[in-house]
Amino acid sequence: MKRTILFAAAVATAALTSGTAQAQSIADKVRERGYVSCGASQGVPGLSRPDDQGVWTGFDVDNCRAVAAAVMGDSKKAQFVPLNAAQRLPALQTGEIDVLSRTTTWTYTRDSAVRFVAINLVDGDAIMIRKALNVETAADLDGLTICLQGGGSLVENALDLIEQNNAVQVERVYFDSTILARDAYFGGRCDGYMSDGFAIAGQRASVASSPDEHAIFYSGATTEPLALAVPRGDDRWFDIVRYAFNAMVWAEDRGITSQNVDEIAANTTDAETRKALGAEPGIGEPLGLDDKWVYNVIKQVGNYGEVFSRNLGEGSPLKAERRLNALPSDGGILFPIAFK
């Protein structure tokens, strides 16, 4: 009997220790290493790419810097690993990266391999077209030539829907890659070039010799929920990444920015805001973080609106519209989870 009790106690202790280690493993690894390892694209303007000095910038980059601000107290303690589409999920599964913040659509199959944390950007198909053609509706596309990547892509399926739903027919010109299709469009081979919306906006801003000559037409045929992802098996890390992103959305909903967060933290009487910004203790304990972690995200990275504007929106060369990536009060679907 005594041996049985000792054995049971040993098993229980091992299980508890194993569960704790599992729940905190990535956060502990990040602190020991001194930075968050983030999966990024191989260079998409406005989303993630290094500048001339090798400093990574973009919307996806700032999403990962928010995690670094929450965990390390310093948004600069993030390093970025450029990954192509085939590499991104295996890099999470093998532990090469801690967070995937790289234009990845949330799907059932992918979610069974990794854990999607939150939809951070909603995109859809778009067509870049010369303004001189005066395309305002899908009906205006009838008879035009469209450059696109071949091979049964989502974009090609979207073009099928446009034709079916609007009784139009376009001439498709296929290429082996989106880059070749884009260059053919700019070279005058086609009337329009079709790809994902934010990618189109980035290419117009960075590649077109005269960006103002090109319009972006959103058909609404497809909606792509792009999301942050983490490895499976670590609930604590999942929560940290989820709520680091949520802090930016919550801040915008409350009118809190990187510029006024100090004043609000010092003067607000709202209980939720005081706790979230660390003016009252307790916000850090559930995630094993410092009580100033939400404040650090907002102060160092900004709220969601600030991040979108400087990378993709009016404060950036892309000048992309927020569309669904706005708060419900502005016609979008972005909403915060309360810090209660």
If you had to describe this structure to a student in words, what would you say it looks like?
- The protein is α/β, with parallel strands linked by helices and 340 residues long.
- 40% of the residues lie in helices and 17% in strands.
- The chain has helices at residues 2-33, 59-72, 88-93, 108-111, 154-166, 178-186, 197-206, 235-254, 261-267, 271-276, 293-300, 304-311, and strands at 36-40, 49-50, 56-57, 78-82, 99-100, 115-123, 125-130, 145-149, 171-175, 192-196, 214-218, 224-230.
- A five-stranded mixed β-sheet has the order 9-8-10-7-11. Strands 4-1-5 form a three-stranded parallel β-sheet.
- Helix 5 links the parallel strand 8 and strand 9.
- The radius of gyration is 23 Å and the shape is globular.
- The termini are far apart.
Strand content: 15-25%
Structural class category:
alpha/beta
Rg of Cα set = 23 Å
Q: Please summarize the sheet with the most strands.
A: 5 strands, mixed
Shape: globular
Number of helices: 12
| Overall pLDDT confidence | 91
What fraction, in percent, of the residue positions are helical? 40-55%
Number of strands: 12
Q: Could you list the spans in which at least 5 consecutive residues all have pLDDT below 50?
A: 1-23
Biggest sheet, spatial arrangement of strands:
9-8-10-7-11
SSE pattern? HEEEHEHEHEEEHEHEHEEHHHHH
| Alpha carbon gap, first and last residue | 47 Å
